[in-house]
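Reopening this one. Same input as before:
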Amino acid sequence: MLDMQLKKHPLSETHEGAYVLFVNSDSGIDKEQRVFLEGLTIDFDALAAQTKFTATLEATLVCQGRRGDTLVWVLIVGLGTVSTNASEVLTSLRLAAARSIRYFENTVIANFACEFPTFNVPGLDTFAVAQELATAWMTAAYQFNTYMTDQERHLRGSYQITLIAREAEHEAIQTGWDRGVWEGFAVNQARLWCDMPPCDLTPTTLADHFAEIASAHDNLSCQVFAKKELEALGMGGILAVSQGSSQEPRLIVAEYKPEGSYTQTVGLVGKGVTFDSGGISIKPSQNMDEMKDDMAGAATVLAAMQAIAHLKPHVRVIAVAPLTENMPGGSATKPGDIIYHYNGKTSEIKNTDAEGRLILADALAYICKQYELDILVDLATLTGACAYALGPFYAGLMTRTFGLREQLVAAGEISGDRVWPLPFTDEYKKAVVSDVADVCNIGKDGYRAGAITAGMFLEHFVDETVAWAHLDIAGVSFKVLNKCHLRSTGATGFGVRLLVAMLMNMH
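Same output, byte for byte:
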């Protein structure tokens, strides 16, 4: 966690034990920073020459200075070349802020001061910079150590931070910081759910945990459907996937209502397979432990609901999360089975490892029938095909609505949760037509585009009058290499900031 205070004193008049200075490679250290370093008897030019420090985006320089008899640590972090594009600057700041946490977490330093960075970039204000700093430091400090009994293996996870800025900026910094903290908290909540072992994070425990969160907010409600209620509703997809497991399924329906009037209602749906063995079409054993993360879509939408309950956008939001395990028990669904979904359509199951679309089908049909939506977005760790197509830095975006596509792309650029549009046209529709049912849960040979054909399956369960987008987050939700503001193992919480950015920009 982060505790922040603001000070208006010039950098050279502050008296802290450790400092972070952000420096870009275009102009190097500024006049105020140079005076500050000289006051600590630090010869920056000599150190930079000796270490070949050029303030590139990967560079850090650790200095030790003195204030009287007191040792002072200074961490100088490179920002690289400062772009004129706001999203690129925020990305650089995000990475640079994370490197400061990577350094301090292995030291005894728990308190540090930071000169608030300023940028002369169109569209980038003080609020946005403060928000990004808070979120970056929050998410970088996250660690999953719940099951580590050896306390010496626990890294530092909380800090007291002093931001040094002009007094005229303090209000914007404070409001931006507060939003960033709540966003960072929500991202870390999603990561914690995904990192939990499947023996402890079951459909029931996740539903109970979110219900407890919702009960703490007057503007957030939660209803949880158990197995008998799902049977009564005709949720054949959720029931089919769950029937090989001893863990009962759940369906979470959450609603955020803003104060006063609102003009738009947004639906969010997230895939929640708390462990995916593949069922009868069982997965290879290698890396199967990572299938505890197959509920990242559900974790994302539920954590986003927690964030907006605090941030209070002027839009009504409905979130639906189908939760189940997919196991190869004696009563498990078999390849060749045909099931009925909530909206009455039938699907042929040719591969029980294509289970995510089956539970999403029920959830999408339910939210479309029960609510009048203006926008609907679903997120799912749905296909390996998308992960191979786009790698670890972009989620796949499928939609027929140009305005929603642009809205999500823009929110992704500014939040860092970037999305890339994939083709989504009628040429792919025949891929999921079944010879014995309405649709088939895998695409026909020859079409190959597994991510797109999965989206085509889902389209059968969405009201065509609703602006709908499907996000395949399979490649970006877990164990993302080279994303240095997070750790290279574990969950990323991808999508939380994307959804919050989208919702906060709506009126």
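So the earlier flakiness isn't reproducible anymore. For the record, DSSP finds 14 helices and 18 strands in the chain.
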